């Protein structure tokens, strides 16, 4: 339980350190404390909202409380997302190249598809997304022209799709402006370091399963469990329910059933959820409630304050 709490704290310290490394490219002296709180509060909000939609607004709000301008905060959030995608797109193929998870090929076979096949398929999606983001960073004008041609071609058949693609073109323009500071040696080195830090910043998601297994007395091969947790992380990354609630429990129970007996599944799931999100939600709620109380106290002291 203590180890799980320590892993959950990496939502704050790992994510905060990554934000700080990225912000230093744009600002001379960003607040490390503010960045740590922004990392944790962003995770707190993402666990409470569908599609992790609350992460960016809460991260920007927290950074703003510590003097980080919104444009800088937006760039940090964007580059943090890119570093996360890059981490999974690089670490996953490396693990496969070294033969990790081969034993999973004998488990969970349905319609000829094993857990190992599912891991490779989900990893492929992250790899493609990583390549697309890298292309947008390196060749934004080429990507924008390509999208414009596609929009013109599709526009003859579907105005709705053409409008969506035009919106994506505008998004690429904004992204190009945001990442200009990172098109330098220092910027690329900072992004590379942020990609490495993405490992510990996601440690609670990647190691929650192994820690929970050991907590209930089950021993399993560490790397195999790590890959299964990576698979679950991939599948839940864009879950449509708040924090993947319901979906996460079903997927975790199905995937981890090769290790967890049915009678221990509820206990395992509770421990897994504690490490994955409940610790961060509890601490984030305490921090946010203190902000609310301070705000209300300020209004009571100065009724004319807006």
Give keywords.
disordered C terminus, mainly alpha, 74% helix, 306 residues
Describe the protein.
- This protein has 306 residues and is an all-alpha fold.
- It has 13 helices and no strands.
- Helix 3 (32-46) packs antiparallel against helix 4, helix 4 crosses helix 5 and helix 6 packs across helix 11 (222-236).
- The longest helix is centred in the last third of the chain and has 37 residues, at 265-301.
- The protein is globular.
- Mean pLDDT is 82; it is low at 302-306.
Beta-strand content? under 5%
- Structural class of the helices, strands and pairings? mainly alpha
Oligomer status: single chain
- Topology order in helix (H) and strand (E) letters: HHHHHHHHHHHHH
Mean pLDDT: 82
Question: Helix tally?
Answer: 13
The helicity comes to over 70%
Biggest sheet architecture: none
Shape: globular
Low-confidence stretches: 302-306
Number of strands: 0
Integer-rounded radius of gyration = 21 Å
End-to-end distance, in Å? 44 Å
